[in-house]
C-alpha cells in the first residue's frame, strides 16, 4: 500500500465508527467511513481502496456481504472484519470466506497498528510478486505489423501443445519475449518459467546450472543445488543461445530431451522431470550441423516447431509504436524524431531501439524528443555522436612515465630509484628494502655504490655536500 493508503470503513455504531476512523487516520490512512454495508458495497463499485475494515453485524448488508463484494472487485485487497460478538466459529468462517484478519471490539490500538502493518506488508509483497511475474512472463507485446502478428498467431496455436519450440532470429529481435509468450498461453502458465542463457555460463559450470549438483561434487560445492531442469519441473525451460553449447553438453541435453531424466553432477540418483523446452538461437543451426559443430539429432529434438522472428528492419511499421512504448511518461516524439527512427536500419534490432529511445528521453528538453537529438545518437555500432562545434572536446595526451628514463644507463636509473625510495621512507632502510623487494644487506650494498652522492642515517637522508662522512658517507 502507498504511504497514505485509502481505507473503506463500514460500521453502523457511531461511537465505534468515529473511534476507528480517528485511529486509522492517526496511523496515516485516508478513511472513507459509512454507516451500513449496502453503502460500503456501493462505494466499492465506484472507486478503489487499499484496505477494507468492516463491522460484522450491520443493517441492509452485513460484513460478510462487504467481504464478498470486496474480494470480487479485487481479490488481493486486504479485508479486516470487526465484531463485538467474537467467537472461534465467527473467525473461522471469516477466514474461510477470504478475510485477512478479525478484530474483536473494543479495539485495542496496538492490535490495530499491528494488523495495519501486516496488511501493508502483504500488499507490498503482492505488488512485488505481480511485477516479478510480469517481468518473467515478458509482459504485454507491442504488435504493430503483420509480421509480428503472424508470429503471435503461430505462438497461440502451438502454445497448448507439449512440443519443443525453436525460436530463430537476430540478436535483439525479442526471442525471449516470444518464449515468454509461449509459456503464458500454454497450460503451464501457472507453473515456473525458468530461463538460462547458455552463452553466459562458462562451459565448466553449464552442466551444474542445467542439472544441479550434490554437495562436495567439486571445489566450492558446499551444499546440494537444484538445476534449471528441476526448477522448471511442470513448467517451461527457456534455453537462450542454445547454439553456443559444446558437443559434450549437447549430448547431455539430448539425453534429457529423449528420456526426461538426468542425474545431478556428483550424484547417482536418477531424477525425472516434466519440462517443456523452448530454445532460441541467433545462429544458423542448419549450417552448424553441416559444419559438424551442432548435433543433427539434437536440432530435430529442439526444432519440433520452428518460429522465425524477423529483424526490426523488416517490420518498419513497428519502429515508432515501439519507440512510444519505450519512451518515458510525459514525453513525446516530434515528427522529425519519428522520421529519423524510421530511416535507421537498426542493426541491434529492438534492443538497440530501446536503448536509443531511453537515452534521448533522458536528454531531451521540454518533454519533446526532436529529430536532431535522435540523429545525434544514431551512429554505427561503437561510435559516439559527434560533439557540436560549439562544444569542442579536448583530448589530453596520456603521459608516458618511462619516457624520461630513455637514454639513461641502467645503473643511473637504479641509483635514482633507490635514493628516491629511501627519501620517501624517511631513511628507514627496512621499509625501503621491503618496498624495493630486496634484502636490507643488498640495499646497504647498493647505497654504498652511491657514495659520495648520499649520506644515510637511520631516520633521515642527508644530501652530501661533496666530502665523505667519517664513516665513508653512510651510517652503518
Helix and strand content put the structural class at: alpha/beta
| Helix run count | 19
- Spatial order of the strands forming the largest sheet: 2-1-3-4-5
Radius of gyration: 36 Å
The level 1 CATH classification of the largest domain is Alpha Beta
How many DSSP E strands?
A: 16
Mean pLDDT: 82
The tally of structural domains comes to 4
Question: Architecture of the largest domain, CATH level 2?
Answer: 3-Layer(aba) Sandwich
Low-confidence stretches: 381-399, 452-476
Q: Helix coverage percent of residues?
A: 40-55%
If you consult CATH, what is the topology of the largest domain? Rossmann fold
> What does the largest sheet look like?
5 strands, parallel
- CATH H level of the largest domain: which superfamily? P-loop containing nucleotide triphosphate hydrolases
List keywords for this structure.
Rossmann fold, disordered C terminus, about 475 residues, five-stranded parallel β-sheet, Helicase, Ruva Protein, domain 3, about 45% helix
Amino acid at each position: 500500500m502507498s504511504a497514505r493508503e485509502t481505507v473503506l470503513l463500514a460500521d453502523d455504531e457511531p461511537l465505534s465508527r468515529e473511534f476507528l476512523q480517528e485511529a486509522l487516520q492517526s496511523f496515516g490512512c485516508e478513511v472513507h467511513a459509512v454507516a451500513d454495508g449496502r453503502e460500503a458495497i456501493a462505494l466499492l463499485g465506484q472507486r478503489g481502496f487499499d484496505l477494507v475494515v468492516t463491522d460484522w453485524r450491520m443493517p441492509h448488508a452485513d460484513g460478510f456481504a462487504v467481504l464478498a463484494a470486496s474480494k470480487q472487485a479485487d481479490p488481493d485487497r486486504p479485508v479486516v472484519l470487526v465484531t463485538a460478538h467474537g467467537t472461534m466459529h465467527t473467525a473461522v468462517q471469516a477466514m474461510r470466506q477470504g478475510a485477512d484478519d478479525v478484530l474483536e471490539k473494543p479495539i485495542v490500538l496496538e492490535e490495530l497498528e499491528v494488523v495495519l502493518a501486516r496488511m501493508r506488508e502483504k500488499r507490498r509483497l503482492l505488488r512485488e510478486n505481480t511485477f516479478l511475474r510480469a517481468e518473467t512472463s515478458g509482459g504485454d507485446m507491442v504488435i504493430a505489423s503483420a509480421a509480428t502478428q503472424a508470429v503471435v498467431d503461430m505462438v497461440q496455436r502451438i502454445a497448448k501443445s507439449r512440443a519443443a519450440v525453436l525460436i530463430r532470429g537476430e540478436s535483439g529481435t525479442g526471442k525471449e519475449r516470444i518464449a515468454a509468450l509461449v509459456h503464458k498461453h500454454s497450460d503451464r502458465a501457472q507453473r515456473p518459467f525458468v530461463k538460462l542463457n547458455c552463452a553466459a555460463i562458462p562451459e565448466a559450470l553449464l552442466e551444474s546450472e542445467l542439472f544441479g549438483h550434490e554437495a562436495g561434487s567439486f571445489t566450492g560445492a558446499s551444499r546440494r543445488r537444484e538445476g534449471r531442469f528441476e526448477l522448471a519441473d511442470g513448467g517451461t525451460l527457456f534455453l537462450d543461445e542454445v547454439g553456443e553449447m559444446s558437443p559434450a553438453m549437447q549430448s547431455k541435453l539430448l539425453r534429457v530431451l529423449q528420456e526426461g531424466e538426468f542425474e545431478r553432477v556428483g550424484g547417482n540418483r536418477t531424477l525425472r522431470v516434466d519440462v517443456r523446452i523452448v530454445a532460441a538461437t541467433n545462429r544458423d543451426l542448419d549450417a552448424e550441423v553441416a559444419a559438424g559443430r551442432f548435433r543433427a539429432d539434437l536440432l530435430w529434438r529442439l526444432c519440433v516447431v520452428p518460429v522465425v522472428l524477423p529483424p526490426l528492419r523488416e517490420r518498419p511499421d513497428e519502429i515508432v509504436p515501439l519507440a512510444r512504448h519505450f519512451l518515458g511518461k510525459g514525453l513525446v516524439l516530434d515528427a522529425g524524431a519519428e522520421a529519423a527512427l524510421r530511416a535507421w536500419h537498426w542493426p541491434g534490432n529492438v534492443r538497440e531501439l530501446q536503448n536509443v529511445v531511453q537515452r534521448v528521453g533522458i536528454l531531451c528538453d521540454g518533454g519533446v524528443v526532436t529529430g536532431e537529438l535522435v540523429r545525434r545518437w544514431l551512429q554505427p555500432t561503437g561510435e559516439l555522436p559527434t560533439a557540436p562545434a560549439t562544444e569542442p572536446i579536448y583530448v589530453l595526451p596520456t603521459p608516458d612515465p618511462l619516457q624520461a628514463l630513455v637514454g639513461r644507463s641502467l645503473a643511473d636509473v637504479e641509483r635514482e630509484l633507490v635514493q628516491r625510495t629511501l627519501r620517501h621512507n624517511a631513511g628507514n632502510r627496512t621499509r625501503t628494502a621491503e618496498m624495493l623487494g630486496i634484502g636490507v644487506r643488498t640495499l646497504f650494498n647498493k647505497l654504498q655504490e652511491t657514495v659520495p652522492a648520499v649520506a644515510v642515517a637511520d631516520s633521515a637522508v642527508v644530501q652530501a655536500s661533496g666530502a665523505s662522512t667519517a664513516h665513508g658517507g653512510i651510517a652503518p
